[in-house]
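User: Can you fold this complex?
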Amino acid sequence: MKARNVARIARWETTRSAGDIDRETAVAFVVVLVALAAIVPALVTMGPTPGEGIYRVGVSEDSQYADVVASDAQLAAVDPGAEADVVVTETGITYRDTPKGRAALSTLRSATVSYNDFLMGQEPDQAAAFPVVVSLTYLPQSISVTGQPANGGQQTGGDTGTGGDAGTGGQEPQTGAGTGTGGDVPTTGGGLSGLLGQAQSGTPSSISPPFPLQSLVFAFAFLLPLNVVIQAYGSSVLAERINRRGEPMLVAPISRGDIVAGKTLPYLLGALALISVIAVATGAGALSVLAIAPLAALFLAATFFGAMLARSYKELTFVTVTVSVGLTAYAFVPAVFAEVHPIAAISPLTVVVDSITGDGVTAGQLVLSMVPPGLAAFVLFGLGTGVYREEDMFTQLPIPSKFLDALAAPLTSQWRAGLWTALFLPFVFVGELFAVAVLFVAPVSVSVPLLLGAVAVIEEIAKSVHVFAGFERGQYDRSVRNALVVGAASGVGFFLAEKLLLVTQLVGLPELDVAQAAFSPELLGASPGLLLVAPLALHVVTAAVSAVGAARSRLAYLGTLALAIVLHVAYNLAVVVVSLG
Amino acid sequence: MGSRLVLARRTLGSLRSEKTIVLALVIQLFIAGFSSFLVVGLVSLYDPGSTEGAIEVDVGVTGNASGDIAATVADDGVRVVPFESQSDAGAAFQRGDVDALLHATTQPGGRTLVEATAPEGSFRTTLVVSELKSALSALERERRGTFAQRLDRQPLDLPPEERSNPYFSFTYTVLLPLLAFLPAFISGSVMADSLAEEAERGTLELLRVAPLSLRDVVDGKAIALVGLAPAQVALWLALLSYNGTAIANPLAVLALVAGVAAVLVAGGAALALRIGARREAQLLYSFVALGAFGAASLLPQSPQNLVARLAVDSATTLTWLTLAATLAAAGVSYAGLRWFAGGGED
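Assistant: Here's the predicted assembly.
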């Protein structure tokens, strides 16, 4: 890769983009952006409520509750005789026994609480109006969140248990299941400090549980510009593939890597510039820009790969939406728990949230949030560059078939199957981390088996899908001996690369039962030799099993893949059971 | 008309053969699941009720007003543990025997000062704090009652407490509008893609050699894409009512979606025809659509609010008028697009 070539193509990409836009379009862009800039403050000041007037309350105008109804946007006053969800009369309050009626009643109740506070605020005798003043402080307890002793970082024994005995049962985290009442905790007052979980004081209704809502909204602002950038970038990549426009560049004496790097550079720099602007605007530090950078690269890499596979702009639109939705979920779901749980360290957005709230970020957190997306971006660019060639760019094939092409292209020798298995590890890592993030709120008895299944599926697919592509595209001869060699290479590659997962140790994720099941289901008390050999044997055997199927046909591949997954789950279960003793 | 229907069928056919429509539904399902996951997860963090009494918050109480607290605070989710001294209570908190501490002292003026301590950085924090909050609010109401003669105005009685679904409002005001407008937005986007691609590949010229005017081409593609949006939404509405979420005016919701889709498709098509390059057209379309939704949110009843009101059966006359205005706007935008596609003649 030559820096001069890259710079020239980057310059060309930038000037061409600017030159392509005629004056009228440029004016339209300016007009629309100015209009958007005008609408945003209007929206902020008006603050439209999507739920405005969805609950109808029958209340006469002279009733005091009419003021309550007027104070809450979700409530709309109607005549007492008219159709309503809740009716306030002299004698009392009646409501319809429907989900809507009960929700309306609950909203009216919390609106009355706020109204009473407003009423009392006008009293001359404030000591009688607000007879209770609370100051809330947070203190660490010496027990950890999952109920294990704080010093038990490495222990595997009883705490991984599915039965939920002493260790995990006593302090069981709230599960996501179940419904109930009182969801609308009114958050009057509280302010920023309340949202950020710092000490606060005031009346009982002004205190609020810690939840980094504002920081999350800010963090979301970091992802928004990425969506705009990938839209432009995807169009630019796919435009090269329309009417063979990219051909002149392909025949020029420059490498494919130079072309791709040059085309990507302006967009990456643009994304980083936008992120920096947002970081300054939201008061996040330079560290947050650094943390988002690999994620921005992953957005671009996934879009690039998608644009290399897509047949048309329509298809590209869906690919782009999938990329942005998937990656946004990956970044956003763990960050919700930024204030309460170490699991949040998975997401680069957590670094942003911590940077805004002023909490420190450890080096381990930074590494865990940056390395998986960064590596995944690198590999996706590699795969996409592999098909950045004449025979693939200008042919129209369905996405799955193009995908196989892209996977098969780099498999020029048998050992390379192992190399690419190792390179897929970031995706395995990202997928498993995401599964952990989604499942960790569930009780251990549900989450651990589900996770063992998910891990087996993700890992087996990662070990075999490119092997299948290699056989399908004729990179490997379809023989059993070949299949065994390639499968073994893939298994060894996976085993070696898996040692990368040790990075999770840096942030104490293994303390979490779920994470332990995913990342280090190790036999306790077994000899060190067995500890090394058993996983190696597992990976080699399962990879070889699915490779034998892949060498035969697509149907056989699906069958052997299922068999490999079952083997993997059985192994993991055995490990968990044995380590439980 | 026949040739337009053929074109409409071919547009749908290409979406089907590219499997993009499947991808679109998967994306919508994912977004719905994702937002529901966030809300359900968050509510269960906050909401004592959602744990069905499985969790009891033990509160260590000290101070000279602890008797008052013990009397009012102890309800279904809270268990009061009295302590003699603050240091005993602090030690029990450190050991994890109690989840929170309240040190309450009554001042000469009658005011009660409460120093509350909650565990830091734990899942239980949010739950503990919301339990403390509701308990202390009850204490506040009770104390206000005893000071009634010192107050000029009296606080209103609270409406009765009733178990209600905490996700009710979210379902109608966030989830449903999201599912309703996403397909419309994507339809407009695909319309822009489709025309821009024909223009870039030069096949738009080919289509015009066929016995079809540009207006017919636009018609054909628009029929397919405008029709697709309400069809997807109908699927979501059916799924929601199957899950027990009653949808009051399904036809009105679908009409609204079709109207919004028509406006967006007309906008996407006009931009693609005018600009002729996908990247610029698509970017401009996104900004314009974003701006249009933002501007529409400033209306007395925003599109999001319109869907919520229609579906939850709280429609007012203004709701129906806004719906009619949306459909009229759809007609006008589409007529404008046809006029534009016809080269500005007749």
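The CA atoms of residues 418 and 493 of chain A lie 4 Å apart. Chain A has three domains: 55-119, 212-398, 410-581.
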